[in-house]
Structure to design on (152 residues):
């Protein structure tokens, strides 16, 4: 099977110059774990995952204490307004991942699955054309659905 037979065409996207709040709202509205990031001509420039939008626990320098950091800044866990302010002012391109797994529509599903599993770091493979325009996506759920349906 080829990628084009399983991919979801016309995926939801976000532009790199849009604020994070737009991306977060789009993810929530459509139940997405991540959004491909495109430029104004539709070329893929990165990927934003929910994990990239959530504070992460880190050790405070020179201490054994852990605190939350979001976008490189320490965050008071009780300061929801500060987190919202970050989302409203920071552009997607500042937080997005630029290392993404990509395939072409004519590639085999085996190639796509291999790319997704490289280092266990990718949750989705993005399908692009020769000019790097985004055409579709393949997620872990797509592969799971395929494995279950093929076995039935």
């Amino acid at each position: 099977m080829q990628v084009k037979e399983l991919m979801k065409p016309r995926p939801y996207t976000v532009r790199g110059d849009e604020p994070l709040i737009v991306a977060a709202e789009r993810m929530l509205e459509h139940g997405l774990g991540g959004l491909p990031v495109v430029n104004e001509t539709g070329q893929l420039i990165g990927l934003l995952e929910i994990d990239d939008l959530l504070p992460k626990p880190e050790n405070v320098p020179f201490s054994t204490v852990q605190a939350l950091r979001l976008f490189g800044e320490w965050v008071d866990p009780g300061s929801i307004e500060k987190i919202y302010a970050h989302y409203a002012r920071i552009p997607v391109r500042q937080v997005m991942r630029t290392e993404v797994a990509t395939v072409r529509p004519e590639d085999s599903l085996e190639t796509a699955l291999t790319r997704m599993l490289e280092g266990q770091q990718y949750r989705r493979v993005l399908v692009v054309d020769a000019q790097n325009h985004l055409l579709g996506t393949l997620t872990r759920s797509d592969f799971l659905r395929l494995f279950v349906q093929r076995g039935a």
Strands lie at 8-9, 14-15, 34-38, 44-49, 56-59, 66-70, 73-75, 102-103, 124-128, 134-139. Residues 17 and 91 are 5 Å apart (CA to CA). The mean pLDDT is 87.
